[in-house]
Amino acid sequence: MKKQLTLVLSLLLLLSCFAFPSSAQTDAVSVSVSIANAGTLVLTQKNVTVTDIDTDGAITLNDALYAAHEAAYEGGAAAGYSTYESEYGLSLGLLWGNDSGSFGYYCNHTASMSLVDPVKNGDQITAFIYTDTATFSDVYTFFDKDTVAAKKNEEITLTLSASGYDENWNPVTTPLAGAAVTVDGVKTDLVTNADGTVTLTLKDSGTHIISASSDAQTIVPPVCSVVIEQTENPLPTTTIAAMIVLLVLFVLGLITSYLKRRRHTS
């Protein structure tokens, strides 16, 4: 009996030496990251591949922000991003080179509880440095669409919303009226209506970043990436006319040649 017990204990000890994979997700995921520094967008929907960089057994917001800095910040994550352990858990020490400690971060337009919140494929992540570092009044805003594909001069309708809290600190979302719309960082004459809605058209092909600003309150700028399809340029009218003339001349030449052969044979 002693020998059998010793054998069982030895097997258990041997098994404990092997590391079993965690049930948390550790496969690489692809997410989109935007970062605003005191009301100015410094990174807009940067697609990054995220792995378990901090080896905590899960792919988290911390991993995503690290990957975004590594890919887009001059000098990489070592120069622009850092974290530390505080009484509140893992905390931001440096975001986009800023060490103010006044930071916020959202995932899919919902406030994240901590840097160790998990992220998954296709998540939209926004991190920001507060403009108001005294009362932290910056309001998080977002469009109802993160990306839009459209044709030249096709109407694009977006609705801008602001995130906040009610008297019981429950999250609420309200339309943001009176915000000035920007296209590729340039302010336009377009302003959101009472429902937070605005309609715009774009004439240039390629990718354009739609955002907004407000004179009434301090907001975290929203981001919508609009891709305008490349259309083939139609032939100029003069080119078409020249082609028709050449075609007519070619046909006349064939007819003339045919008539000459007929006369010779007769």
Topology:
Elements: H1 2-16, E1 29-37, E2 40-50, H2 61-72, H3 77-80, E3 82-86, E4 89-94, E5 103-107, E6 110-111, E7 124-129, E8 139-143, E9 147-150, E10 156-165, E11 171-175, E12 180-183, E13 186-191, E14 197-200, E15 206-213, E16 219-220, E17 224-228, H4 237-265
Parallel strand pairs: 1-7, 8-16, 9-17
Antiparallel strand pairs: 1-2, 3-4, 5-6, 5-7, 8-10, 10-11, 10-14, 12-13, 12-15, 15-17
Tally the structural domains.
Answer: 2
Number of strands: 17
Distance between the termini: 123 Å
Helix content: 10-25%
Q: Quickly count the helices.
A: 4
Mean pLDDT value: 89
What does this structure look like?
With 266 residues, the chain is an alpha+beta fold. It has 2 domains: 24-136, Ferric Hydroxamate Uptake Protein, Chain A, domain 1, CATH 2.170.130; 138-230, Immunoglobulins (Immunoglobulin-like), CATH 2.60.40.10. It contains 4 helices and 17 strands. It has helices at 2-16, 61-72, 77-80, 237-265, and strands at residues 29-37, 40-50, 82-86, 89-94, 103-107, 110-111, 124-129, 139-143, 147-150, 156-165, 171-175, 180-183, 186-191, 197-200, 206-213, 219-220, 224-228. The strands form 4 sheets. The protein has a 5-stranded mixed β-sheet, with helices on one face. A hairpin with a 2-residue loop joins strand 1 and strand 2. The radius of gyration is 30 Å and the shape is elongated. The N and C termini lie far apart (123 Å).
